[in-house]
Write a structure and sequence with these properties.
The chain is of the alpha+beta class and 116 residues long. It is 43% helix and 20% strand.
């Protein structure tokens, strides 16, 4: 009777959970620390006529690294930043107050003035 033999070491990858977590964390830390850029263009032509061009740019980096590179668009996007949302509401409120003041001024000019 033969007993089943184990696979030769190194033949199969290590099971998940043993050492791969630390490696993945190290890789992720390096990518976020250094940043990575992936760029590509897709062009669709028909008989030398360009029908569609799609330019893809992907940057993966930590917030600190992105700010270091001058990328901070999320700070001014009202959907992503409460401060930007507040600033937008303040601006909109000021515009509406200005419009209301102009309308009230026009209305005062249209109404007949009472005789003394």
């Amino acid at each position: 009777m033969t007993t089943p033999s184990r696979a030769a070491p190194g033949r199969f990858p290590e099971p998940y959970g043993q050492g791969s977590g630390a490696n993945l964390a190290d890789i992720l830390e390096r990518v976020l620390d250094k940043g990575i850029v992936i760029a590509g263009d897709i062009r669709i032509n028909l008989l030398d006529i360009e029908l569609l061009t799609i330019k893809l740019r992907l940057i993966v980096a930590s917030v600190d690294k992105a700010k270091e590179m001058g990328i901070d668009w999320w700070e001014s996007d009202p959907a992503l930043s409460s401060r930007a949302r507040r600033d937008e509401l303040t601006r909109e409120n000021a515009e509406l107050r200005e419009r209301l003041a102009r309308l009230e001024e026009l209305e005062r000019g249209r109404t007949p003035k009472e005789a003394p």
